[in-house]
């Protein structure tokens, strides 16, 4: 693995899992309080664009990292709406 590939791997890992702490905190406290789903939604849209770009240039690291990131952001938005609905009904 060359130097630029290592940098790409580390950068991909960091940006992919940047939203994971928010998801973890929300699941742990079982509350949507303090969470803004707009940020996760915007990130998800651009991660879909990155995924498409990865397919166009046939870059497996870009494809894989962005599939994982889209999944994390989807779970974050889904958890937000689940907990927000429960808080409004409860």
Question: Which helices and strands occur, and which strands form pairs?
Answer:
Elements: H1 3-16, H2 20-29, H3 37-57, H4 60-89
Helix pairs in contact: 1-4, 2-4, 3-4
Describe this structure in words.
The radius of gyration is 15 Å and the shape is elongated. The model has no long low-confidence stretch (mean pLDDT 89). It has one domain (3-89): Monooxygenase. The protein has helices at residues 3-16, 20-29, 37-57, 60-89. The chain is built from 4 helices and no strands. Helix 1 runs parallel beside helix 4. The protein is an all-alpha fold. Helices cover 83% and strands 0% of the residues. InterPro entries: SWEET_rpt. The chain crosses the membrane at residues 6-27, 39-56, 62-84. Keywords: Membrane, Transmembrane, Transmembrane helix.
């Amino acid at each position: 693995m060359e130097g630029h590939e290592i940098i790409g791997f580390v950068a991909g890992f960091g940006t992919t899992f940047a939203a994971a702490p928010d998801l973890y905190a929300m699941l742990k406290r079982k509350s949507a309080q303090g969470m803004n789903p707009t940020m996760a939604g915007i990130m998800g849209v651009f991660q879909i664009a990155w995924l498409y770009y990865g397919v166009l240039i046939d870059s497996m690291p870009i494809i894989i990292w962005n599939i994982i990131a889209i999944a994390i952001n989807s779970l974050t938005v889904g958890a937000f709406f689940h907990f927000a609905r429960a808080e409004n009904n409860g």
